[in-house]
Amino acid sequence: MPDVEGFDEFYRGSRQRLLGFVYVLTGNLAEAQDAVQEAYIRAWQRWSTVSGYDDPEAWTRVVASRIAVSRWRSLRSRARAYLRHGAPESVPAPGTDTVEVVAALRRLPEEQRTAIALYYLLGMPVAEVARQTQAPEGTVKARLSRGRAALAGLLAVSDLEEAADA
Known about the structure:
This protein is mostly helical. It has helices spanning 4-26, 29-45, 47-50, 56-85, 96-106, 110-121, 126-133, 137-165.
């Protein structure tokens, strides 16, 4: 059983110093908060070992600074790639049909929505959808059938509403 109270005390006693340190390194409060949060997660995962160190805060500080530097390097590499290859081409906005389908999908139960997305959008066979969702193939087929029927009803209602508004 992890020493929850010991970790809580460590966290409360060191969080402001650690955040201040990483903020000075990054110059960005959000980046500093993300790096510090990740460092504390790692410290918690290894708390049985880290708590035995002479200075657990020093270990956490090193981890947080490495996380921050790693993110900075990643951003720098991404910026160099943009300079080398140019900015990505703009993607056209989704059409009204796409927006309507997405809105209708949001109204379906999660299981049906997931089955439809895996089957129709990713092109997975029913057996693979069943494996991914940990459901029997018959259940996946039922979800697909019910989802299609519900989508047809939802999209037909939208078309009827548009016709009535016109």
